[in-house]
């Protein structure tokens, strides 16, 4: 018996047509896809036969979408798998951080259990990649990192991942730089940072410390930047400047970046071009209580924008479903992406930029050579999937069924 696999009768997008009212319509057809060693090696119309003696799965007309990438998460903080617990009210960020420091040490005994529950939930919603930030601080040390690394390694045949060493209580907080370096030697794959102005109170020193750790360990960067207004804008400009100096182009991401959406349009356009020039990505959780970065403008300028669900059901917030498709749908609704292509293109923010079709209707995905990563839903096209957020019937990672059934 061959180790190859055929996924039969997959509904895939094949082009666009123009209706009588000049609106666009997505055209689809059924295909068979051959998978070998985690890659698509053959794609043929479902009207053609496939060889015998090869394992098969039958999608039965379900729409195939590129699998989702959860690009901003906190696996170590969730209460999932524990009893219900609402958030304790606080009067300041300082108080919230103090409470979290106490709580995370207590929760460290259940890190693997809770992280597993979060991973399983994200998988059930279509994610096959998780970028998780893990607290590295004087209170919990590397305890959370050890647990998260263990869980992710145990799931390495079901998803890919990044582990960001995250200085939640400040990068310049006493022994934290040393702990961050220890974390990088102990399984973290990326360097994080947090509010150089609001938390560290020293923009230049905080950014320099973060970049120095990244270059020492040849690691990419993903910094939390909540600092708003001109302070946040200045910080972003300094990070761009530092990225050029360190020659760290295409290796830095800014999470949240509220300041970009709060700036005047002229400043938004200026910094969008600068971000694109250094290949700096922007990660957004599509907040409804904060100003979003100007996603459409950033995208138009060539900035890679990704969505994530953030930490959810934890000491910071009792809300969240882990559904990235909901994030794409919410973004589309808020910014009135109600036409066929506007909805379909919103999918790119949860798939690492992948969409089935170009705006001209050319097939971009799936093609021979692509990773065999899929989400299967009952929908006629990706535009409908974004608008209606149907149930995920099955999820495939590198040719392996990791959720649902086919």
TrEMBL record:
Record-annotated Amidohydrolase domain positions: 178-403
InterPro entries: Amidohydro_3, Metal-dep_hydrolase_composite, Metal_Hydrolase, Metallo-hydrolase_Enzymes
Highest taxon, organism lineage: Bacteria
Pfam short name (any one): Amidohydro_3
CDD domains named in the record: Bact_CD
Protein name, entry field: Deaminase
